[in-house]
Structures are given as C-alpha cells and as structure tokens.
Design a protein that fits this description.
By secondary structure, this protein is an alpha/beta fold. About 35% of the residues lie in helices and about 20% in strands. The chain folds into 3 domains: about 160 residues, Alpha-D-Glucose-1,6-Bisphosphate, Chain A, domain 3 (3-Layer(aba) Sandwich); about 190 residues, 3-Layer(aba) Sandwich (Alpha-D-Glucose-1,6-Bisphosphate, Chain A, domain 3), CATH 3.40.120.10; about 80 residues, Alpha-D-phosphohexomutase, C-terminal domain (TATA-Binding Protein, 2-Layer Sandwich).
Length: about 475
Amino acid sequence: MKKYNLVQNINPNIFRGYDIRAIYGQDLNEDIAYTIGISYGKYILKKGYNRCVVGHDNRSSSEPLCDALVSGILSSGNVRVDLIGLVTTPMYYFAQMYLNDNKNEIMPGIMITASHNPKEYNGLKISFDNFGNACGKMIQDFRVFVENTTKHLIDSNTIIENIGILEKKEIKDEYLNLVKNSIKLGKRKIKAVVDTANGTASIIAKEMYNMFDIELIELYMKSDSNFPNHHPDPSVEANNADLKKAVIENNADIGIGIDGDGDRVGIIDEKGNMIYIDFLAIIIWRDLMSKVSNKRALFDVKCSKSLPDEIIKLGGEPVCYRTGNSYMKAKMREEKFAFGSELSGHVWFNDRWPNIDDGLYAGLRIIEILSNTNKNISELLDGVNRYYSTPEILIKSSDDEKFKVIEKVKNYCIEKGYNINDIDGVRAEFDNGWALVRASNTGPNITVRFEGKTKEEMEKIEKEFMALI
C-alpha cells in the first residue's frame, strides 16, 4: 500500500459551511486526505461508531484522494470501511442507509466530490453520525480535532499501523431497484432530453431512464472529468444553452440537466425556457398536496414569494428555512416533510422515496406528472402569482470578509426598521418585495437576490442593497 505523510497546518479555510473543499494540488492533496482520514476514523470511534462508507465522483483527482483517505481511516484504529467506489452522491446517500445494520439510521461516511464546482476543485462531504452531512459548527469542531490529533501524532512520533478492515461493496443494482419501484408512469409517453454534463450521473443515467417507457435523448452523457461541454451546474441558466437547444430541435416535452455529482437538477420546459426550482416546486406541490398528510412545505430563503403564495392556495403551510443541503435534509427528516426544495437545484421527496436529493430521480418524478396529464410542463404553472426576480447574483468576497459584510447589512436593516429574517444571512421583507444578502458556504462569495411586485420596485430594492454592499 502506498505510503502517505501526515500534514500539519492544513489551510483552515478549506473547512467550509457544508464540506471540505479546495483546489486539488494546492490546499487539498493525497497527504491531506490521508491526514483527515486518520482523524476522521478516530473521531467516529470517539462518537461510538466503528464503521463508515466511502465513495467518490468521476473527477480525475477523486480516486487517488479516495485511496489516501481510506488508508488514513484504516490507520486510525479498528474501523471498517465499506468502499463503494465510483458513485453519484445520491447513490452514496443510499449506501449510508442500505449498508447500515439499522436501516432507520444513517451510517457515517465520506463522499469525495466537489459537486458542481470547476474541474480543478475537489472535496469531502462528511457525515459523522445519524444527522447526515456535517455542516457549520460540526465541521469547525472537526477541524480543531484534526489539528490537535495531527499535532499529537507528530509530536509523539506515534507509530501508525493499518489495523482497520476494508470491504468493497456494490450498490448500483439495489439503487436502481429503489428507483424503479418508486416511479409509476401514466399512459402518455414523454420525450425527455437528459444532460448529465459529462459528470458522475453519466455512469447511471441511461440505465436508469431506460427502465421506463421514456423516449430518451442523451446529451453529454459520457463521463469526462474535464467537463468539456459546459460547467456542470444546471441552476445557472447559461449552462443550459445546449439543453434548451436540444429540447427545441427534438420537439421534446422536457429537458433535464444534472450537476457534477448528480444531486441537483435543472428543468427546461417544452418551449426551451428554464423553470427555476421554486416554480418546479409549485408543479410538484400541485400534484402532491392532496396525497400527503403533512401539508407543511419546506423551501429555502432564496425562493420567490410565488412559492409560499401557491402553498397557501393549496391549503398547505409554507416553511422558509436556511439554505444548505445539510440543513435542509436534516430538517426534512426531523419534521417529516413530504417534499422540500432549494433554489440551487436540490429537491427532497420524502413520501415514497427516502429523502435522497437525486437530480435524475427528480426528473423522473416530473416525467411521471407529465405522463398522467395532457398538459405541457409550462401549462402546469397556469395561474401562479408572478413577481419580478433577479437570478442569484454572486459577489466576490474573501472568506474572511464576507461574514463581516453580512453583519453590516443586518445592522443597516435594523437601523432602518426593516422586517428581517436572519436565519441565513439577511432577508429583508417589504410590502412590495424582498432582498436577500447571505454569505455563500461553498465559495468566497456573497450571494444576493431581489424580488418585487413590479420590475421598477425590484430594481429600486436591488439598487439600495447593491449600493450598500
């Protein structure tokens, strides 16, 4: 087995709000992965766990990082690693439940992925316990543990031995069976263009969709870690240009875009227009609300007022929560929401599906809705309250400065007497619209979004807050 070295003074900024993430070869390499692996194994042992699952995406750096990470975990103590190899992040989430002896709990684990980030990045989505992906203070507590553990091992010249157990597991067939048993298509055959952006979903998308009576048109469905055709983030409209074109040229019913690790979705309607996730959630709730007992609807602070308006019309209760896969998924499980949505493209079904955010599965659920109606997808949004909204805007800001900016914006709003929601950054609510200013937890950015009843009101709100920032 290859030998790795312990690394002290790992850049603390790679320990982010939802994961560990950095540019490969700079602040993240095999030795750092090995160092984190040793601390991770010791950390979960301390929490009472002696088993974890590890998977990785299709980035060129992921397999060598995985080898180093697993070597570290196996050297941490008597820990068993269930290695599932190349998988989408949703498949990894499934393995955390499926491979666990207690099917009602989530096994600790690490998924090596940088999600939708550019090809030069990589990272670790970490789970220590039944909470799921660690976030916020959990990750910072682990950072301190890594620093202290590494210092102790180096200072004491501790002899590190590989004493753990490695077991390789295959979970693809079981995951496909789960999908197959959860989708019930109607009589109408749907023509769908699916763009996996050469990301990790490329390894399973065709097989998954061909289980159903769907006319599948493949787009960029060859796995390629260089992402040669476009950036693998379907929440950004510019990345969907080829998908829009393919929908129009093929007279398709729907276009489905998937991100780099497979857990997020973007939807294009039959006219080639992008349906943002807050409006996709309206389509889903219109179908789902009468079928579920828990009519509380979860969504994140970035979503348009159109969504809570519609939830109330349908007899549901809107619940606005903080952005972030880790926070949203845990909230879904804790309060047993039937469905939740985040503007970035994460959606969680928790009805006949086990609360896994999977872009491919979300696409199938929309196809299911379409297959049971004669309406086009754009017609499924008839009668929705419409507002003028900006897309999500990213403003570059260092990781050290961005939280200071948010605090200043919050103080400004308090001084002005604005009604604010500060569960995640600052969302200032007005009679004629709202402004959201928050620190990104995935990169050195401040993210903002603005909405108004009219274009002029939206632009007025935007002008005030952009000038402030």
